[in-house]
Amino acid sequence: MRYALSDISIVKRILRSRWLQWGLTAVTLLFFVLAILAGFFGTRAGNRNFGIVFVWIIWWAVLILLLIPFAGRLWCTMCPIPAPGEWLQRRALVQPRPGARLYTLGHKWPRRLRNIWAQNTGFLIVALFSAVILTSPGITALVLALFVVVALVTSLVFERRTFCRYLCPVGGFIGLYSQAAPVEIRVKDTAICASHTEKTCYTGSDEGYGCPWLLFPGGLQANTFCGMCTECLKTCPKDNVALYLRPPGADLWQTKGHKLDEAYKGFIMLASALVYSAVLIGPWGFLKEAARSVGSTAWFVYAVAFLGLNLLVVPGLFWLSVRLGQGRRPARTRALFADYATVLVPLGLTAWIAFSLSFVLANLSYAWPVLSDPFGWGWNLLGTAGLAWTPYLSGLVPYLQTPLLLGGLVAAVALALRTARQHGQSPWAALPVTVFCAIATLGFMGLYVA
Amino acid sequence: MKREWFALSVVLVVAVLFPAMLFGYQAWRSRAPGMQVIDVVARLPEEGGFVPDRLRLVAGEPARLRLTSPDVVHGLTIPGLGIDIETIEPGRVVTIDLTPAAPGRYAFACTRWCGVDHWRMRGVIEVTGVAGGGTASAMPTAEPPLYQQLGLDIDAMRHETHVMPEVQPSAARGAALEVSLPPDLAAANRRRALAPTDAFAQSRAEAAMTSLSDRDLWDLVAWAWLRDTQPEALERAERLYARDCAACHGPEGRGDGSAGQDLPGMQKMDPAMPAGPADFTAAARMLGASDALLQGKLLRGGMGTGMPEFGSLYTSEEQWAMVAYLRGFLFGR
After folding, report:
1. Fewest CB within a 10 Å sphere: which of A214, A293, A444, B304?
2. In angstroms, what separates the C-alpha of B266 from chain A's closest C-alpha?
3. A183-187 sheet: strands from edge to edge
4. Residue B150: inside a domain, yes or no?
């Protein structure tokens, strides 16, 4: 039940255009440059600084409320962070240069690190300091600039988009949740791929580069690592790759064979959503203060609690749930643990959307003044600098959050039951995981609605 | 190749020309020919307060102050230059153009209760007589404040009343008596040296006052203390009290303001005295304090008690008006 959007001629033309990715990136680069400059040189008042407002309110809202749920990894197509490195590596911005030497040492990423543990670690580090990063324009700018530098250096040393695939802290969770998206890039007929010996989708051709994400599209089963750069649509000489519209979450229905690093990404995202909700929108001043006072005793306690919750408590409780579901046959707990963790995708994604709704709608109106005065230097370019902060639809938010969270729970329960079935377990085996999901949902509802 | 050049040009515009345009626009916008421009960042006092907190200007030469706040809402007053900015909102720029007329030292202060150390958020503008001049000219030499002329030790005095009135004295009842005041109470300069309790004792001894009961006499004393102050001066004092004093001393002058709860108060000087800000409704202490003493405390501050100095921010008229306003908490308005 899929529909090939790229079969529409205008869509195909756009997707196969070499200007598509460059054009999107040029636009986001403009905002990115402005965000970094405002962060370094603008006012320290976050709500009046373009860097804070546009990165942590507007970009975040667009990413978590629109792009990921509806377009998967579309952000990775237009992300400006790896662009300088990629352009330098290719020594080209738009056109492929077949046969030309790439400006990189071209090393392969170490085999032992070919997973998303580094992304998990990077996300945890950023999340640990997020109370400061999210409110300090200078630190936000520093972090963004650091990402660009790391991406640039990585591209000079390693092949293709190694940074995006293995290091980007944002890419990890975008990949995880993009499995829930209603779009995918897949081959039309795998037999054609098998018979196509050149494999230009991976090696590149006159029409485009080999998959920057180090994937063979013919074997693609999930959105997790596909950056939707559309190079494979350009390089496939047999027109065998398409952008499909599909039922949301189609990747998740295959619940067997998942890996521990991906499972942990799910735990980290769920636990982080909980901590963020408590720290950033909760009524506990001491928690906010502890999260902000980096280096203090209170912060160390917070850091230990944060890491403990992310790496031990939530995964531990989940492991216990999986183990309880096995009854007296605890033989495959590790495999089951990773596979049952697919329930964390709808659960976590809806929690993040609900969390984001609570502050995005409340703070969206900060965008108008910073459009007129991005640095807080007293400009009024568009005449909107004086517009007062106005929360939008604040009364409606709980009515959006509740069905969202419940929807996430329903999807999680369905996935738990499917996992049980695919592993030959009784439906009752999914009960403890279902209870885990219900408790998590209640926790979020308590934070947002109660 | 043309495509690549076009793409590269666009990227260079975004990454190089665009930032250059932004900074160029700001430089063009900030230009102020013939005017000294000073950027002042108003931070929480714990984070540094006004930065810089010492500005140097030249009398007769225009200057522009651009104030911003990176944290919370602040305010600004420069009483000597007649400048009052109610709000410096975080992330907004407040521009003040001024041309100081005369050399001198002009104190400035935050006027919003921005934090626990709000009262420390002060600075000074030194206005020299000529461009490139050395130190600022001294303020015109004023005569010493009355408490110094009288030799009052405002730290040591406990100023408790000798006689407690049976009921709270009322200026309104005192006015209704329509009795001529004794000379010491009628003349402001003589009355300011007296504590109300001394005035009561002196008046009680006068033959002309024997017909008045103690209660009437206290009312008369209350009226004597308030009758000279003009309503406009009291209104000004009321605004200043709300701005500068109420947070510690409380809106009703009872010493119960939330910002003053942890201050040592006069207990710093004398362990037998109550901690915290002064209670202006407490007859025992207020009746024992002269106006000169209260003015001294106001203009010099409390030396460790937590009471800031307002001598650099209030004019002499404002100080006396404030003293009268404080009396009103006990004597009525």
Report:
1. B304
2. 32
3. A3-4, A241-245, A183-187
4. yes
* Residues of B in Cβ contact (< 8 Å) with A374: 22
B4 touches chain A (CB under 8 A): yes
pLDDT string in tens for chain B (333-residue length): 889 999 999 999 999 999 999 999 999 998 888 889 999 999 999 989 999 999 999 999 999 999 999 899 999 999 999 999 999 999 889 999 999 999 999 999 999 999 888 988 999 999 998 765 554 444 455 688 999 999 988 876 567 777 889 999 999 999 999 888 888 888 888 899 999 999 999 998 888 888 899 999 999 999 999 998 899 999 999 999 999 999 999 999 999 998 888 887 767 667 777 778 999 999 988 999 999 999 999 999 877 778 889 998 999 999 999 999 999 999 997
Same domain, B224 and B308: yes
Is the domain of B265 the same as that of B201? yes
Of the residues A20, A33, A144, the best mutation for testing chain B's interface (the one with the most B CB atoms within 10 Å of its CB) is A33
Alpha-carbon distance of B141 to A19, in angstroms, equals: 76
Same domain, B172 and B119: no
DSSP assignment string, A340-375: HGGGHHHHHHHHHHHHHHHHHHHHGGGHHHHHH-TT
Q: Best mutation site among A40, A43, A136, A382 for testing chain B: the one with the most B CBs within 10 Å?
A: A43
Residue B97 is encoded by which pair of tokens?
């153009």
CA distance A132 to chain B (A): 14
Label residue A422 exposed, middle or buried (CB < 10 Å: 0-12, 13-18, 19+).
middle
In a domain, B136, yes or no: no
Residue whose pair of structure tokens reads 């260079």 in the numeric block: B12
State whether B86 and B183 are in the same domain.
Answer: no
Residues of chain A contacting B95 with CB distance shorter than 8 Å: 378
CA B112 to chain centre: 12
Q: Does A216 touch chain B if contact means CB atoms closer than 8 Å?
A: no
Whether residue A29 and residue B11 make contact (CB cut-off 8 A), yes or no, is: yes
A35 to chain B: closest CA residue = B19
Of residues B8, B19, B69, nearest to A33 (C-beta)? B19
Considering the domain architecture, whether residues B220 and B323 belong to the same structural domain is answered as yes
Looking at B128, B161, B187, the residue that finishes a domain is B128
Minimal CA–CA distance to A181: which of A8, A339, A61, A349?
A349
ipTM of the complex model: 0.92
Q: Which two tokens stand for residue B45?
A: 């006092």
Distance from CA of B19 to the nearest CA of A (A): 8
Domain containing B303 equals 146-331
Report strand pairing: A241-245 vs A183-187.
antiparallel
Last residue of a domain, one of B102, B128, B154: B128
* Whether B161 and B93 share a structural domain: no
Query: CB under 8 Å, gap of 24 or more: what pairs does B250-256 form?
Result: B250/B277, B252/B281, B252/B329, B253/B279, B253/B280, B253/B281, B253/B326, B253/B329, B254/B279, B254/B280, B254/B281, B254/B329, B255/B279, B255/B280, B255/B282
Q: Is residue B28 situated within a structural domain?
A: no
Contacts of A94 in chain B (CB under 8 A): 3-4, 7
Q: What is the CATH number of the domain that holds B320?
A: 1.10.760.10
Both B170 and B226 in one domain: the answer is yes
Same domain, B110 and B192: no
In a domain, B253, yes or no: yes
Domains: count for chain B: 2
